[in-house]
């Protein structure tokens, strides 16, 4: 059985302002309403694959859970990393988890933010590499290059027509001239960061090449404990792990690494220009997502989260409009978005990291407007979910139900509110919300007071 391990970390700067630290690109519903994370999960939701092991950031736990739920896919484990530690620790942690169920398990290690358009070609290559993995090889999948791209690492693969071939050399990201030479030579492929290996092989490789890291990760895995649908690790122990990639830790040291070249129309979508290149276009080469219009424009990309975006008389330009930020850039400057994000971070701007929508265990909130003494946000409460019993020291709240029926409790008094009804929460009142129905509840919350930050919450236990 192959256990897919889906890596879902990332900080979300290259597709800003839509992608941010609290909502990186793998969770953005850019592809007919689906995200790259969901497409990756569906890719391995087939016969021959076990339920996925998902390893991702604690910050994104509710997005991972909700997007899996939307697909009706139940994970083997959703393992939460307290901090990012690159790809080596997850590679071993997945092996340890899979081996507990099946000592002969194979693990397919997959980034969650890659687009693969020819999924059948990719899966055929995975299955063709199974025997090599079962025989103790670590298989890396190399993408046949379509251009001299300097943003990827390369793998020099031995000549031959076999599905799986020896690796001659791993090469760091080259300059343009060297990348052109690689493309001309024909024996080099892009390193996609996708691996197939047996649990036993990876555990043995860590014991041989990274014995101290192996002991540290094994000790961290002993701290596993459940929290709702997630598995947590001890933060202090995890933070001490080496921040190292699987390539440096194992691949470049081992003599049993092989490569399976494949051409599945793969892209890691590292910029808005890359997003434009893979989406459908009109007869003038324009791509619009959301409420967008084009006039006398060519090869442009426009994205609108809420407002109408019109592009007139432009060529090769990207316009990305969210509810709190707008990006306008030439496609040739797509990689410079990261520079803008770095500047915003240096200025302490929330737009660098925080998305207007914040996911919660019960649903989400989304900022609408805010001023010196007020804030307005929408709320969605999923069926059957309840907010914690809480109170605030510095703000009052006013709730207006837009749709659905919600059960509210304020200082021990419980009643139902439905569409167009409202309630007021006084300063210091203990309150909670519960959706007893079968459809999501949608509400507007108006906060008013001297301090409106998220940390003005006192949580209470006991009866509501």
UniProtKB/TrEMBL annotation:
Does the record's keyword annotation contain NAD?
no
All residue ranges annotated as the Nucleotidyl transferase domain in the record: 5-282
Listed name of the protein: mannose-1-phosphate guanylyltransferase
Cited Pfam families: ManC_GMP_beta-helix, MannoseP_isomer, NTP_transferase
Question: What keywords would UniProt list here?
Answer: GTP-binding, Nucleotide-binding, Nucleotidyltransferase, Transferase
Q: What family is it from?
A: Belongs to the mannose-6-phosphate isomerase type 2 family.
Q: Which residues form the MannoseP isomerase/GMP-like beta-helix domain?
A: 295-344
- Its source organism is Roseibium album
Higher taxonomy:
Bacteria, Pseudomonadati, Pseudomonadota, Alphaproteobacteria, Hyphomicrobiales
Q: Which domain of life is it from?
A: Bacteria
Top-level EC class, please? transferase
């Amino acid at each position: 059985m192959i256990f897919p391990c889906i890596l879902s970390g990332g900080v979300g700067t290259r597709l800003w302002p839509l992608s941010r630290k609290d909502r990186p690109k793998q969770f953005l519903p850019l592809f007919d309403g689906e995200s790259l994370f969901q497409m990756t999960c569906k890719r391995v939701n087939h016969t021959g694959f076990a339920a996925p092991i998902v390893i991702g950031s604690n910050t994104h736990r509710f997005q991972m859970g909700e997007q899996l739920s939307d697909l009706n896919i139940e994970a083997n484990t959703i393992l939460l990393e307290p901090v990012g530690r690159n790809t080596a620790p997850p590679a071993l942690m997945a092996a340890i988890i899979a081996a507990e169920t099946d000592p002969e398990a194979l693990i397919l290690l997959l980034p969650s933010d890659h687009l693969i358009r020819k999924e059948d070609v990719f899966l055929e290559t995975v299955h063709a590499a199974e025997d090599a993995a079962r025989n103790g090889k670590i298989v890396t999948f190399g993408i046949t290059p379509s251009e001299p791209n300097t943003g990827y690492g390369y793998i020099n693969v031995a000549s031959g027509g076999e599905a799986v071939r020896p690796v001659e050399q791993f090469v760091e990201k080259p300059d343009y001239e060297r990348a052109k030479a690689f493309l001309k030579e024909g024996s080099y492929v892009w390193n996609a960061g996708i691996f197939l290996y047996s649990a036993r092989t990876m555990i043995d490789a860590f014991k041989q090449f990274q014995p101290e890291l192996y002991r540290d990760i094994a000790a961290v895995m002993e701290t596993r404990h459940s929290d709702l649908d997630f598995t947590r690790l001890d933060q202090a122990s995890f933070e001490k792990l080496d921040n190292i990639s699987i390539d440096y830790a194992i691949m470049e040291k081992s003599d049993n690494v092989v490569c399976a070249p494949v051409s599945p129309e793969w892209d890691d979508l590292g910029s808005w220009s890359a997003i434009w290149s893979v989406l459908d276009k009109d007869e003038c080469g324009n791509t619009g997502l959301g409420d967008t219009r084009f006039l006398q424009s060519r090869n442009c990309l426009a994205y609108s989260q809420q407002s109408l975006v019109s592009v007139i008389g432009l060529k090769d330009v990207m316009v990305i409009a969210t509810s709190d930020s707008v990006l306008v850039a030439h496609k040739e400057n797509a990689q410079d978005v990261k520079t803008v994000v770095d500047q915003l971070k240096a200025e302490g701007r929330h737009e660098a990291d925080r998305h207007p929508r914040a996911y919660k265990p019960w649903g989400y909130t989304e900022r609408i407007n805010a001023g010196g003494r007020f804030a307005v946000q929408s709320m969605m409460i999923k069926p059957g979910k309840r907010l914690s019993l809480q109170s605030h020291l510095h703000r009052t709240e006013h709730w207006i139900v837009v749709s659905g029926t919600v059960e509210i409790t304020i200082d021990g008094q419980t009643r139902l509110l439905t569409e167009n009804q409202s309630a007021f929460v006084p300063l210091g009142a203990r309150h909670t919300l519960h959706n007893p129905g079968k459809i999501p509840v949608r509400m507007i919350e108006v906060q008013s007071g001297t301090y409106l930050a998220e940390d003005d919450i006192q949580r209470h236990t006991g009866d509501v």
